[in-house]
Input
Amino acid sequence: MDILIQVLTTAIAPSTAAFALAAIGLNFHFGLTGLLNMGHAGFMLLGMYGFAISLREGWPIWLAVLVGLAAAALFALLLGWPTLKLRGDYLAIVTIAAAEMVRFLGRSQSLAELTGASTGIRGSDFKAPFEELSPFADSMVEIGPFAMHGTRSSSWWLTLVTWGLVGVFALVFWRLSKSPWGRVLKGIREDEDAVRSLGKNVYSYKMQALVIGGVIGALAGMLWAIGNSVQPDAMGRPTTFWIWTLLLLGGAATVFGPVLGAILFWSGLTLIKALASAFIPSDVLAPTSLEPFSLVLVGVALMFLVVFRPQGVLGNKKELAFNG
Amino acid sequence: MADTAFETVAHEPGAAKPDAILVADGVVRRFGGLTAVNVDHFEVQRNTITALIGPNGAGKSTFFNLLTGFDMAQEGSGVFNGKPLRGMPAAKVARAGMVRTFQLTKALSGMTVIENMRLGAQEQPGENLARAFAPPLWRAREREITEQAHDLLHRFKLYEKRDDYAGSLSGGQRKLLEMARALMSKPTMVMLDEPMAGVNPALTESLLDHIVELKEDGMTVLFVEHDMHMVRRISDWVVVMAEGQIIAEGPAGTVMSNPRVQDAYLGSHHDTDLFEERDA
Output
């Protein structure tokens, strides 16, 4: 029973929602347009830096959100400008490198005043304005079997906001993917020369998709930071790969794929960890090895997914499967 | 199948046409030291079917890419329907009314046949990001587009397949879909890059009929082809390229007996059809 509650708590956690939102952004890139963005964590990190630094400087929260979103939009324009005219793989190389550059710049000592270097920005420096908006009690609140703080950090308030935004952006994705605009993007995903021959400005559409997906990623980064803190090393390559994994797990190019993928991925990880710590004696598997061990099992599960259901749980094999 | 428009046209490379829809001048495309295309002058008569033939490596496809904006020439200029082509990107060329198909068919496999067709249409306001959010702004146009697509699909005998993914079609059906999709934009000129490549003989006839229909509907057709039977059957005028240059022009019947054309083919690759022509 304890394990079940633990798993369900992960399933509804704000961090899970933040990852679902990030995956919705990546779904604009990959699912709709076929862009191989391998630096999604970079967009998230830029978003959280823009947000947290603005708030620390005492700017109003709406402006802080705008700064974070603008930083990601600029980043997307900068990355897309030279690479979107080239073949798809170049974008993958450039995004993975650029995301690492953002992380290394963030953790460099010379920018310590601004970004707090490798320690990042503490939650107490920027969370207050968001928490002041909370309609929940400033104490632990139990709803059903779940106990979370009403207001602070990973709270009911943040849960409400994050899942609300996941709903909003799932709706946006649904509307756009079923529109003529989304049709052009899907055409580009299939064959951009064909779309060009039909009179569409492919470069402009790819840029729009890159910016929209990146901005959604930045928003996800801000929400994740409110639940945790700004930590450059938490937004390295593994984060990007997790987002890819859960997007493909749920089903790329679908509305609910990113949401289901995030829930399955994180609660699956929690379940494996809980079961392993309950049933494997600690002299066989040290508690410190639990996390890597669970990730190995998740990796194996994903290999089965690739073999037996390459389109993901909700995906359509005829439209998009990740073995081509 | 002679067209009266060509009665006064000289049978020589770069011949002037009475009513040219497409004119190219001094087009040069080099890849490093290799000059792939070097065309002094080229005209296509409006509302006719013109074939562009030549041995492998003659530069036909490169010339095609240059005309349609998919490649950029180092030198030269072109005019399509009164609009200068120099520096015009491919998408703009298509919007100006010159659409193309590809040698290797580009059916969009992950989309249904009807979505492929709808994508071909122009002036859909819903293709703008902001307007995409408000369906009332684009639903009416979407209905028009869908109706147009259904008509074309009936004509190309793909109507029953409209909800299938394009990836499930046969090679020949994909060719038909690509041509039908190009027609969605109501072009004035259709450029077909090897429309018969990989099409089974049963479909060849209907594909030929479709191309002839394009002319009857007032369009101009320029196509690259290796199949000499097809060239003879449907083209009003034949332009022969070899080593990047236009070496001969004329009606299908006479151009093949031109000694320069025979040299160009037999000097590099034997083409059975031309062989028969010479022996006859």
In short: The mean pLDDT of chain B is 89. The longest helix of chain B spans residues 139-155. The CA atoms of residues 100 and 191 of chain B lie 4 Å apart. Chain B has eleven helices and ten strands.
